[in-house]
Amino acid sequence: MPFDPDHEIRRTAVLTARKLAQDYGDIVPLTVLRNGFLHQGQRYSFGSFQNGIYRPAAFQGSAALSLLTAAPKPGKPRPYEDSYDPDTKLFTYHYRSGSPDQADNRALRAACRERVPIIYFEGIAPGQYMPMAPMNVTHDDPAARTVLITAALPSADTGPEGITSAPDLRAYALTEVKRRLHQQKFRVAVLQAYRQRCTVCALKQAELVQAAHIVEDPDPEGVAAVVNGLALCAIHHLAYDRNLMGIDPEGVVHIDKRLLEERDGPMLREGLQGFHRAQILEPRHPRDRPDPARLAVRFERFTAAAG
Questions:
Q1: Dihedral sign of CA atoms 95, 97, 103, 104 in order
Q2: How far apart are CA 289 and CA 228, in angstroms?
Q3: 138-147, 185-194, 220-229: least confident range
Q4: Which is deepest, 15, 56, 114, 245, by most CB within 10 Å?
Q5: Does residue 205 sit in the same domain as residue 256?
Q6: In the chain, how many domains are there?
Q7: What residues contact residue 175 under an 8 Å CB cut-off, 6+ apart?
Q8: Is the residue at 146 inside a domain?
Q9: Banded pLDDT at 58 (limits 50, 70, 90)
């Protein structure tokens, strides 16, 4: 098995990328990623964030450090349609245009051949990326001009000889990566549609506004689409999830009768009771507005819970 002379730098890069993902709730601003990472007092870049394949010039080995899939721009397709296959549980990543043996493609193919850990930056929205690490390029198909990418568990052995975790553990790790990616894309799309404000109370403090599913993920109708989402502040999200607050198909808010009858402080009175029978604030674009059929399904659960 090939020996990676850049292993220690890679390890620092992977650990730093994972720490940034943790600190920023999976979605890291490009302005932060451009700061790169420090290894033994020297600063290295995570990538140019213009080209998809990046190998630091200071590397002794030939394999890439990171891969990038850019976020789609409104009204425009991505230049490379990289994708995830739920059957194989692998990402497909495309060569850069040009010869399969040009510098970037050589670095990509070397990452496969040498089984080194890499970082995969998935663009969630312009200027916002989800770092996934450690990842591993597992298969190179020059005829299709693609490679396949999987994940390793954070605790996997990623020594100079490459990632050595078992295939079933990699499949599990990639399922977790895809779940996080799915959640973050849904979150960004919903919050953009609702202009970062709670649909019930209009709170626009970004740190306190969340994306809620109308019909949950495991349900057949629980698709990760804006029409199945609501932007809710933390307290209204929790009340919605606990069936203490419902929203009917016409977009009218209902507060559970027990809460309406309680007497407590201003939070209950103004934060919940005061919105009983209020109309939600909908996205501007009709295509983004909550699906009445899904609201009806969820509202039935609220009324059933209320007895």
A1: negative
A2: 9
A3: 220-229
A4: 245
A5: yes
A6: 2
A7: 89
A8: yes
A9: very high
Provide mean pLDDT across the span 259-280: 91
Which has more confidence, 168 or 280?
280
Longest dimension (CA), the chain: 72
Distance between first and last Cα of the chain: 64
31's tokens: 């302005």
Q: What is the DSSP string of 232-266?
A: EEHHHHHHHHTTSEEE-TT-BEEE-HHHHH----H
Are 80 and 199 within one domain? no
Residue 251, pLDDT above cutoff 50: yes
Say if residue 202 is in the same domain as residue 172.
Answer: no
* 98 and 151 part of one domain: yes
C-alpha to C-alpha distance for 21 and 185, rounded to whole angstroms:
14
One-letter-per-residue 3-state SS of 96-123: CCCCCCCHHHHHHHHHHHHCCEEEEEEE
26 and 61 together in one domain = yes
Phi-psi region of 115 (alpha: psi -120 to 50; beta: other; left: phi over 0): left
Residue with tokens 């919105």: 275
HSE (side-chain half, CA atoms, 13 Å) at 268: 11
Domain membership flag for residue 104: yes
